[in-house]
Amino acid sequence: MNSKKIKTTTPEARKKIILNFLKDNESVTVQEIVNDCNASEITIRRDLAELEEKGLLIRTHGGAIRNTAAENLFTFNSKMNQNKENKEYICKIASRFIEDNDIIFIDCGSTLSFLSKFISKKESLTVITNSLPIISELINFSNIKLIIIGGEVVNERKAVYGHSAERTIGQYHANKAFIGADGISLAKGLTSYDEKEASITLKMAENADEVFLLCDSTKIEKNSFVTFAPYSILNCVITDNDLDLKYISKYQKNNVSLIHE
Predict the structure, then answer these.
(1) In this protein, which residues make up the domain named HTH deoR-type (predicted)?
(2) Which of 74, 97, 120 finishes a domain?
(3) What contacts 24+ positions apart, CB below 8 Å, involve 164-167?
(4) What is the sign of the dihedral through the CA atoms of 121, 127, 133 and 135?
(5) What stretch of H or E contains 128?
(6) Please, which residues have CB within 8 angstroms of residue 210's CB and are 6 or more apart in sequence?
(7) Above pLDDT 70, what percent of the chain?
(8) By CB count within 10 A, which of 83, 143, 159, 232 is most buried?
(9) Are 64 and 22 in contact (CB under 8 A)?
(10) Which long-range CB contacts under 8 A does 44-53 form with residues at least 24 apart?
């Protein structure tokens, strides 16, 4: 790691340093992180424990190693095949909220990518998206006005990110935004594994009249790495029928509708 010490006071910043290092290296020692972050061993061990709990690394006696299983979670192709039937089910429900002549944002992500098959027959629709699979599916439909968000293409995620993408989104206003997240909880709100992805998602939500979160039931009351928005930005959460029913009343009490059938 870097020989120059970086004064890092927030847990989020320290964890980002740890994960960035493990992207390029198989392992890291506690002492290396201590030196880089100018933090105590106790603090760093606590950070590693929290990251391990989220499945982002594996702790060892003197530090941590890369979790290759977690790496696969970040790639679009790997995520596409996880809970595929539930994702299609979620998108079928979501399509009922899309009306002819709507202007909609569609976020990137494996769940959202299934939405295109249920909306292509709409009489007229404007879709604004950063998702390459959505673009590929809808580009040949003359009834769909397709607005492509420009920016940095990230191959593994099959999506466009960056400041240019955020500026583009800010130029538009939609009736509805259909977004994704890696976790949602009443305690932490919406969370993501990736900061760039989270920034795009938040920008879409901020520029829409109604916001629909599409996520499978395994993400309900789960927290991921980056907290990026309060649950209050949502009009509704659309999930699958494997949902634990105890969550429905809890979310209703907090003015969030959970739809699962």
Answers:
(1) 11-66
(2) 74
(3) 165/130, 165/200, 166/199, 166/200, 166/203
(4) positive
(5) strand 125-129
(6) 97, 175, 176, 177, 235
(7) 90
(8) 159
(9) yes
(10) 44/14, 47/11, 47/14, 47/15, 47/18, 48/18, 50/11, 50/15, 51/15, 51/18, 51/19, 51/225
Q: Which helix (H) or strand (E) holds 105?
A: strand 103-106
Whether 21 and 48 map to the same domain: the answer is: yes
Q: Which two tokens stand for residue 85?
A: 């039937």
Which residue range is the domain that position 252 belongs to? Answer: 79-259
Question: Is residue 18 within 8 Å of 57, Cβ to Cβ?
Answer: yes
Q: Cα(21)–Cα(57) distance, rounded to whole angstroms?
A: 11
Specify whether 38 is located in the same domain as 154. Answer: no
- Distance in angstroms between the alpha carbons of the first and the last residue of the chain: 50
Q: DSSP for 37-52? A: HT--HHHHHHHHHHHH
Judgement on whether residues 94 and 64 belong to the same structural domain of the protein = no
Q: How many whole angstroms separate alpha carbon 189 and alpha carbon 254?
A: 11
Question: Taking Cα atoms as reference points, which of 151, 192, 152 lies closest to residue 168?
Answer: 151
Distance CA 175, CA 187 (A): 28
Backbone angles phi, psi at 46, to 5 degrees: -65, -40
| 61 and 105 belong to one structural domain | no
Q: pTM for the whole thing?
A: 0.74
